C-alpha cells in the first residue's frame, strides 16, 4: 500500500511551464496505474492523464500535446510536465494510484490512494 505526496505547484503566467511530482512511499508502487486529476473551483474533478505500470500514457483532449506524464518505478515517483499553460489549467492537481488494468481515463472511483493536492494557478 502506497502513500502519495504531490509537489511542484506554483503560480505562473500563461504560456509558461511547470513540472509536478508525485512521490510515493511504501511498497508496490510499480504495480499501480497512476493518474493525474485536477479540480477547479466549482467544477468536478477530472482525469487528465493515466500512465500504466509499463509507462504508457494517455491524456484527456484538454491537455493532449501540452502535458506529459512519466514515471520511475525504481524511484517511486511520477511526474506531470505541463507546457503552454493557460488560465483554464488553474486547478488543484492530484495524483492517484489504482490497481490495473490501466484502461482509459478511468473515473476517480477506480483509484484507491490519493495525494493531498498541489495548487497550480495560471494568470493571463
Please count the helical segments.
0
Succession of helices and strands? EEEEEEEEEEE
Backbone shape: globular
Number of strands: 11
Rg is 13 Å
Q: How big a fraction of the residues is strand?
A: over 45%
What are the low-pLDDT stretches, counting only 5+ consecutive residues below 50?
none
Rounded to the nearest angstrom, the distance between the terminal CA atoms is: 40 Å
Please describe the biggest sheet, giving its number of strands, its sense, and whether it closes into a barrel: 7 strands, mixed
Helix/strand class = mainly beta
Average predicted local confidence, pLDDT: 96
Helix proportion of residues, in percent? under 10%
Folded structure, characterized:
The chain has 124 residues and is mainly β. The protein starts with a strand and ends with a strand. The protein has strands at 3-7, 11-13, 18-25, 33-39, 46-51, 57-59, 67-72, 77-82, 91-98, 113-114, 118-123. The strands form two sheets. Strands 2, 4, 5, 6, 9, 10 and 11 form a seven-stranded mixed β-sheet that branches. Strands 1-3-8-7 form a four-stranded antiparallel β-sheet, with no helix packed on it. The radius of gyration is 13 Å and the shape is globular. It has no helices and eleven strands. Helices cover 0% and strands 48% of the residues. Strand 7 and strand 8 (77-82) form a beta hairpin.
